[in-house]
From TrEMBL, chain A:
Parts of the chain that traverse the membrane: 6-26, 33-54, 60-83, 90-111, 131-158, 186-206, 212-233, 264-283
GO MF annotation terms: transmembrane transporter activity
Keyword Transmembrane helix part of the UniProt annotation: yes
Protein name: ABC transporter permease
Lipid bilayer topology: Multi-pass membrane protein
Keyword terms: Cell membrane, Membrane, Transmembrane, Transmembrane helix
Native source organism of the sequence: Aquibium carbonis
Coarse class of the protein's main subcellular location: membrane
Cellular component terms per the entry's GO annotation: plasma membrane
Cell compartments where the protein resides: Cell membrane
UniProt keyword annotation of DNA-binding present: no
UniProtKB/TrEMBL annotation, chain B:
One GO cellular component term noted in the UniProt record for this chain: plasma membrane
Keyword Lyase on entry: no
GO molecular function terms listed in the Swiss-Prot or TrEMBL record: transmembrane transporter activity
Keyword annotations of the record: Cell membrane, Membrane, Transmembrane, Transmembrane helix
Major localisation: membrane
Designated name of the protein: ABC transporter permease
Source lineage: Bacteria, Pseudomonadati, Pseudomonadota, Alphaproteobacteria, Hyphomicrobiales
Length: 307, 351
């Protein structure tokens, strides 16, 4: 019971970065731009967040700085894919390389330095930790609390609003959207920047709110898990929430088992989230045509291709 | 807005134009990388010293560059053969780790006649690399799972397996560090007496020559290009599409596995946590810059070997992280990708 409560309590902090990143990718890919750069965007977000806090910024300002760094790198990705119509897969991989490389070169002096993060509800309101519920609520923070609202908001915007419909039209059939008067490139570039914002925020959250320390390579393929999560979620924000909780639980299991001193092969147990992701991908792929993948995802639209 | 000027895809961009864009992108990417390095604290005049003179124009430096290029040639070929059939092998590092693990197992366990040790390490590491990529291959062919994600995730799994071994059964009993015991002499490539260069050179040259011959002078290369350009058309014309994909993708894994073996048997003589790092993007960048052509892969790999050599020097003298190498690779890659805009498309204003 004690183990279960401790586990449930930390799941949101593991699920939040995955959810933020996959929501960003959903927006981007709904506009037809395949974004494999999440790992790099999250890396610069995490490092920028750490540098901001270590330079004396408020943790909330640090989250904003991380998001801004994600936007900056996404801008490069947008120039490559939306403006210069480069191959999405290779551009995404280049963004990962630039992001990981930048953090290695710039972030070196900021490695392994712990810092205070965002205050949890327990610290803010002095919640009584004697009950199970109290223990769970006390370790949450405003960002995790905001997640369900963000999911609802994004779902409503994508699926129910006029501008969301226009964005999806661009990803499904850019030629038709073009004829209907939608500026395809502006919509796509905006979507790319949103993915930068949310992935940067995801990385900054991981660093500033969860680990309270920055180390090189701390994203540890979570960006790629987010990419897979989007497929699992069938490009739907509501399903992404469910997926993030499943993946977050797997991710949180190992540190939890270590915390109670369980004698498990740690590195083998750490494979669990990756293997789970693979399994889920297989299951999602077997769904076939119902996968919900935007029809024009990863392809390059030119007006000459209009029929 | 952006389409006010009409973009039109060129039917067949001329060789001069493509070459010019490629060179321009490369030059721009290198210039940006140089500026980033200067910004990070490397004096500008030291860049020429470290990247050109100390890597190609001194005997020690050239030996170091060639040694560093050996595994790079293999991973570059690995990425290239998969790219030819449009299979994104983003898990080169994972297959390399498995190859290194297989080689290490034979390297420290011993047994069998000494003369057979290196050949068996070569075979087993190639087999393990191929086995590791077989999983994403089956998942893609059978279920349509994107190989980009599956190969990458299995790379993370492979690294965790290595850590499991290094922090467990294979930990060096003498020191307690997470590295294996050193290999027996019979399990090491002999030194060639020029810097750190080792007999793995011959293995790499033979393998590269075989891949070059297979892709450029047999029908395999033709099949691969047909599949890569349009798999459905190739199938309609009766070409062995699935066989070509399976063969070349398994070859890709085997080459990555061999790269892992070359590193542990050639330079490290043991398995540690860093032998496989930095090869993922190297493989992609080499294959892309070389346009997936085996001969060019060798040339680009040697160039990148110089960057690796310079990177280790910069790390010692200027405290620049290995991340620098990845940053240079990413910058050059995206720069060339963007420069191709000018050769792939032409602008025409709507009448």
């Amino acid at each position: 019971m004690d183990f279960l409560v401790g586990w449930i309590a930390i799941v949101p902090s593991y699920a939040t970065p995955l959810l933020l990143a996959s929501l960003g990718l959903i927006v981007c890919e709904r506009a037809g731009i395949l974004n494999l750069g999440a790992e790099g965007l999250m890396a610069v977000g995490a490092m920028t967040g750490a540098i901001a806090v270590l330079s004396g910024a408020d943790p909330w300002a640090a989250l904003a700085a991380g998001a801004a760094a994600g936007i900056a790198l996404a801008f490069l990705f947008g120039i490559a894919t939306v403006v210069m119509r480069a191959d999405h897969t290779l551009s995404g991989l280049a963004v990962v390389a630039v992001g990981l490389g930048l953090t290695g070169v710039i972030g070196r002096p900021y490695m392994q330095k712990t810092f205070p993060g965002i205050a949890s509800f327990g610290e803010m309101f002095g919640i009584d930790r004697s009950s199970a519920l109290g223990r769970i609520v006390a370790v949450q923070d405003p960002v995790t609390l905001a997640m369900p609202f963000l999911v609802v908001l994004l779902w409503w915007w994508l699926m129910r609003s006029g501008s969301g419909l226009r964005l999806r039209a661009v990803g499904e059939n850019p030629a038709a959207a073009d004829v209907a008067g939608i500026d395809v490139q502006v919509a796509q570039f905006g979507a790319v920047l949103v993915s930068g914002l949310l992935c940067g925020l995801a990385g900054a959250y991981l660093c500033v709110a969860t680990s309270h320390v920055w180390v090189e390579g701390m994203i540890a393929a979570r960006g790629w898990v987010a990419v897979a999560l989007v497929i699992f979620a069938r490009w739907n924000p509501a399903r992404a929430l469910a997926g993030a909780i499943v993946f977050g639980s797997a991710d949180a299991l190992v540190p939890r088992l270590q915390a109670i001193g369980a004698d498990i092969p740690v590195y083998l147990a750490m494979m669990l989230p990756y293997l789970l992701t693979l399994l889920v991908l297989v299951a999602s792929s077997m769904a076939g045509r119902a996968s919900g993948e935007p029809s024009f995802l990863g392809r390059i639209y030119l007006r000459q291709d209009k029929h | 807005m952006l389409d006010a000027a009409f973009l039109v895809r060129r039917q067949a961009p001329g060789l001069v134009l493509s070459g010019f864009c490629y060179a321009g992108g490369l030059a721009f990417g290198l210039a940006v990388s140089a500026a980033l390095l200067v910004q990070a604290g490397v004096p500008a005049d030291a860049l020429v010293d470290e990247f050109l003179i100390a890597t190609f124009l001194t005997s020690d430096g050239l030996a170091q560059t060639v040694t560093a290029a050996l595994p790079l040639v293999l991973v570059g070929l690995a990425s290239a053969v998969a790219m030819r059939v449009r299979f994104w092998n983003i898990g080169v590092e994972g297959q390399l780790w498995l190859g290194a693990v297989a080689a290490t197992w034979l390297g420290i366990a011993g047994g069998g006649p000494d003369g057979l040790r290196l050949p068996s390490m070569l075979l087993l590491s190639a087999a393990m690399g191929a086995a590791w990529i077989a999983v994403p291959l089956v998942l893609k062919l059978r279920f349509g799972v994107s190989e980009v994600i599956s190969t990458l995730l299995l790379g993370s799994v492979a690294f965790l397996l290595v850590q499991h071994l290094l922090f467990g059964a294979w930990r060096d009993p003498a020191t307690g560090f997470p590295v294996t015991a050193a290999f027996a002499q019979a399990a090491r490539f002999g030194a060639l007496g020029w810097g750190q260069l080792h007999a793995g050179l011959y293995a790499v040259l033979v393998v590269a020559a075989l891949v070059w011959f297979a892709l450029e002078h047999t029908r395999i290369g033709f099949y691969a290009d047909a599949v890569g350009l349009n798999a459905r058309a190739a199938r309609a014309n009766g070409l062995p599409v699935t066989g070509t994909i399976v063969g070349l993708v398994l070859l890709s894994g085997a080459l990555s596995g061999l790269a892992g073996m070359t590193i542990v048997a050639g330079t490290e003589h043991r398995l540690n946590q860093s032998v496989g790092s930095g090869y993922l993007f190297s493989a992609i960048v080499i294959a892309y810059l070389a346009r997936a052509r085996p001969l060019w892969v060798v040339v680009v790999a040697v160039m990148l070997g110089a960057v690796f050599t310079a990177g280790s020097v910069l790390k010692v003298f200027y405290g620049i992280s290995e991340g620098m190498i990845v940053l240079v690779q990413g910058t050059v890659l995206i720069s060339i990708l963007m420069a191709q805009f000018f050769s792939t498309y032409s602008l025409s204003r709507p009448g």
